[in-house]
Design brief:
Helix content is about 40%, strand content about 15%. The two termini are about 40 Å apart. The protein is of the alpha/beta class. Strand 1 and strand 2 form a beta hairpin. The chain folds into 2 domains: about 140 residues, Aspartate Aminotransferase, domain 1; about 240 residues, Type I PLP-dependent aspartate aminotransferase-like (Major domain) (Aspartate Aminotransferase, domain 2), CATH 3.40.640.10. The chain is built from 14 helices and 15 strands. The strands form 4 sheets. The chain has a 7-stranded mixed beta sheet, with helices on both faces.
């Protein structure tokens, strides 16, 4: 079935926004996506009818409790776990990773080792570096291959020892777009006795996650990167979560998933998350996908991914034709998501970004918090890359317009 791009775009009110008549091309999706009307409606509806705290007998509070249970159950289906207790919803990925790293630190001793891949967003680096420093642990850096743009198993094998306790691993780089073989790398680390914490923030925007298949111990993602409100979500295996030292108020529950809640959850945003997940089921039904909620999520993501691949192929092809431009990532669709970065031999990334933004092409520049990636690629520390992030609501016409804007900017 042909991807229903016009019907999809009609679900996102912000796509019709203009700046003094100038159309916006949202290619800054790697930093955060736009949200569908379903998300907006759920948030507004929460404030209209259910704005209450939880745990008491009035109708609004009962409704909030039910809504929260629905949200963790829906996110469990989204992530591929049958246990809603394994889904922790919090402020954002970085906050949750800091929180869980501090809890995990109680299980480690001086001389234990943590391996951090060089592909990471800083949200999956600093928490582990600081944990290691506080606990007297040894930090090892796992390099990514500059030809395949991913971590190769042989590189991990060389670092694993009986003292390895944690592998911090990126599913997809937010700078290069490279996708790791998380399942294989997880199995290797776990065979050595380590637990695996996966940052899937960039991956979840483009491909459906299956934590049961991956086998990882923890996996973090951010709904605001996949068309939802600004929240963070972490999957954790129940046995791992129950064994953790939980930093929480003394009177707070020990039951999962609320065991790790730091104060009252942002219920209005969680209501919005349900709207985002409902949007995915709408798209699945529009594409003719049937079955249970997990099957519908898969149908939506299959359609979104196929459309994004067409856009990515066209954008990569057009960029490859531009003189002086160096792609910082693979030029192939294999093992990548629709996050594309480049540098130019004459124009700094900030200048390109400023010119493109003035023309209505929204983009990002710099290291994009992929600090270690930028260092490994010897990028200018003040400039980094020009980054374009595609989403399924973008069009081929927008890709062509963007390429023309980039050509004009680089020709100046």
């Amino acid at each position: 079935m042909t991807f229903p791009i016009e019907a999809v775009r009609a679900q996102f009110p912000s796509l019709a926004t203009t700046d003094k008549g100038q159309h916006r091309i949202y290619f800054d999706n790697a930093a955060g996506t736009q949200v569908p009307q379903q998300t907006i409606d759920r948030i507004v509806d929460f404030f209209h009818r259910f704005n209450s705290n939880t745990g008491v007998f009035n109708p609004t509070s009962v409704e909030v409790d039910a809504m929260y249970a629905q949200a963790v159950a829906a996110m469990a289906d989204f992530l591929g776990t049958g246990d809603p207790g394994e889904v922790i919803i919090g402020a954002n990925m970085t906050t949750l990773t800091y929180q869980l790293s501090r809890s995990l630190a109680h299980q480690f001793a001086p001389g234990d080792e943590v391996i951090i891949s060089r592909m990471e967003h800083e949200g999956n680096v600093s928490p582990w570096l600081q944990m290691a420093e506080e606990r007297g642990m040894v930090v090892k850096w796992l390099e990514f291959d500059r030809d395949t743009w991913r971590v190769e198993p042989a590189s991990l094998e060389a670092l694993l020892t009986p003292r390895t306790r944690v592998l911090a691993l990126n599913y997809a780089s937010n700078l290069t777009g490279g996708v790791n073989d998380v399942k294989t790398l997880t199995a290797m680390a776990q065979a050595a006795g380590a637990l695996v914490y996966v940052d899937a923030v960039q991956y979840a925007s483009h491909r459906l996650i299956d934590v049961a298949d991956l086998g990882c111990d923890f996996l973090a993602c951010s709904p605001y990167k996949f068309y939802g409100p600004h929240l963070g979500v972490v999957f954790g295996k129940r046995a791992r979560l129950e064994a953790l030292h939980a930093y929480k108020l003394r009177c707070a529950t020990n039951d999962l998933p609320l065991r790790f809640s730091m104060g009252t959850p942002a219920f209005e945003l969680i209501a919005g998350l349900l709207g985002t997940l409902a949007y995915f089921t709408w798209l699945a039904e529009t594409m003719g996908a049937t079955g249970d909620r997990r099957s519908q999520f898969k149908g939506a993501y299959d359609a979104m991914g196929a459309h994004e691949d067409q856009l990515t192929e066209a954008l990569l092809k057009g960029l490859a034709e531009l003189p002086g431009l160096t792609l910082q990532g693979t030029a192939s669709l294999e093992h990548r998501v629709a996050t594309i970065s480049f540098t130019h031999d004459r124009h700094p990334a900030s200048a390109i970004a400023q010119a493109l933004s003035a023309s209505g092409l929204f983009c990002h520049w710099g290291d994009n918090y992929a600090f270690e990636v930028a260092r490994a690629l010897n990028l200018d520390p003040d400039e980094g890359v020009l980054r374009l992030g595609l989403a399924h609501y973008n069009t081929l016409a927008e890709v062509e317009q963007a390429l023309q804007m980039i050509r004009s900017t680089l020709a100046a």
